[in-house]
Amino acid sequence: MIVLACVLAIFGLFGSIRPDLIWVISESWKSNDATEPSDLYIISTRFGGIVCFLSGIGVIIALAVA
C-alpha cells in the first residue's frame, strides 16, 4: 500500500509541475494542430496532480501513524 501511495504522490507531483509533458504523451496525437495544450487542460491537469499528490501524502501519513 505504501508503494502505491508513493507512486500516486510522484505522478501527482509530476502532473502538477509538467502538465505540458503529460499532454504530449497522452493527448497530442488526438489533435490536428498539436502545438500546445489549452489553458483549461493545463489548469485541470495541475489541479488533478495536486489532488493526487495530496492523496498520496495523506495515505503515507495515515500508514505511518497507524
From TrEMBL:
Keywords: Membrane, Transmembrane, Transmembrane helix. Residues 4-62 form the DUF6199 domain. It comes from Cohnella endophytica. It holds the Pfam family DUF6199. InterPro entries: DUF6199 (IPR045679). It comes from the Bacteria. The chain crosses the membrane at residues 43-65. This is DUF6199 domain-containing protein.
